[in-house]
Design a protein that fits this description.
N-(1-d-carboxylethyl)-l-norvaline Dehydrogenase, domain 2, Rossmann fold, 2 domains, alpha/beta
């Protein structure tokens, strides 16, 4: 390519700091944005941050082109905008970006969870943003990373392959060609419904947390979340949720990976059932449970992952009673209404679309007049 891509990373949490530092290390002008100035004050003062790679033990100070809490400044030179915030903040970020986006820019949600790109596009439409931009989403986050201090990030691992899709899918190759300058690990994820319906967090996180409520609150999470928290009965609930997710995908003509297939693909973990496969995954040993029920496994994964999958199921004739039960119990535990707060298809503006119309929208950007 003739011109080096300018990157802006939105969000200075565990993932955003690691991504901004790593992209900059690879030789690309990188801006780091966070809407709370205090969160990036130390990075701004230093002009960059330390990045440590766990596997090599190498720590290096990395200079950033710009560190800002002003969204207009963050987007001014950006060619590719990496959104690395909890998916519950995607709508707010879209609204903040809307007045300043310009033709040709690419937005990548890391990750989209379920229907993230569709939500982002809906918010921009509602905000009367007319810029011809490309919105895309990753199936999962590429790093296992942590923020070690005000101006320090640590990368434990970089995934080998991460599916990514654009909205519409006809633009996926465009996004891949540019993002491959820094991340050759991204592969074609087919379309944004496929990346969203392969969201394993929707299956593993909320139900396992809810079904261990008593233990989490009595031990403050002092036990092994997957190894001790998953018992044969708990695993049967996870299997029921997984069957519903795969069936919802099938109703849209999408072949989603089962949880068993995902464990085999990601970790080479196998078993006669999900309970056995989870316990055969060495990486789950030592992972502690959430210390409190006020955790993203519920307040993010229920409204942004479980609700949109269940909402699609209800629209297209799939029984999602197991998902609905987890959503309702989560709502009781958190004293809120996750059906009201979540990404339902009416909020996403796709409730009137037939299966064919929905697929035409995500594949080719053709929107039926409804």
């Amino acid at each position: 390519m003739d011109k080096k891509t300018n990157f802006t990373v939105i969000g200075a949490g565990h993932g955003g700091k690691a991504m901004a530092a790593h992209i900059s290390q690879m030789g690309f002008d990188t801006t780091l944005f966070n809407r709370t100035p205090e969160r990036i004050a130390a990075i701004k003062e230093l002009g960059g941050l330390d990045l440590l790679f766990q596997d090599t033990g190498v720590k290096q100070f990395t200079k950033l082109a710009c560190v800002t809490s002003i969204i207009e400044e963050a987007l001014a030179k950006a060619d590719m905008i990496m959104v690395v915030v909890p998916s519950s903040a995607h709508a707010d970020i879209a609204k903040a970006c809307a007045p300043y986006l310009r033709d040709g820019q690419i937005v990548v949600l890391h990750p989209g969870r379920t229907c993230g790109a569709i939500e982002f596009a809906k918010v921009l439409h509602d905000e009367n943003c007319t810029a011809d931009i490309t919105i895309s989403e990753a199936e999962t986050f590429i790093y296992a990373s942590r923020s070690d201090g005000p101006a320090e990030a640590r990368i434990f691992r970089i995934k080998d392959a991460v599916p990514l899709a654009a909205l519409p899918a006809t633009r996926t190759r465009l996004v891949l060609d540019i993002i491959h300058q820094v991340y050759p690990q991204y592969i074609d994820g087919a379309n944004v419904l496929q990346t969203g319906l392969n969201n394993m967090g929707a299956i593993f996180h909320p139900a396992l947390t809810i079904l261990n409520t008593g233990r989490i609150e009595s031990t403050h999470g002092d036990y092994q979340f997957y190894i001790e928290g998953v018992t044969p009965s708990v695993a049967r609930v996870l299997e029921a949720l997984d069957r519903e997710r795969v069936t919802v995908a099938s109703s849209l003509g999408i072949r989603a990976r089962t949880a068993m297939e995902w464990l085999k693909l990601s970790y080479d973990a196998t078993g006669d059932d999900l309970n056995e496969a989870i316990h055969n995954q060495p990486g789950y040993y030592g992972i502690k449970a959430p210390p409190t029920m006020n955790h993203r496994y519920i307040f993010e994964d229920v409204p942004m992952s479980l609700v949109p999958i269940a909402s699609l199921g209800q629209r297209y004739g799939v029984s999602v009673r197991a998902m609905d039960s987890i959503v309702r119990i989560s709502s009781i535990v958190h004293r809120t209404d996750y059906w009201r707060r979540g990404r339902t298809i009416d909020k996403l503006g796709i409730d009137n679309l037939s299966v064919g119309e929905l697929m035409a929208y995500v594949l080719e950007g053709i929107r039926a007049n409804t």
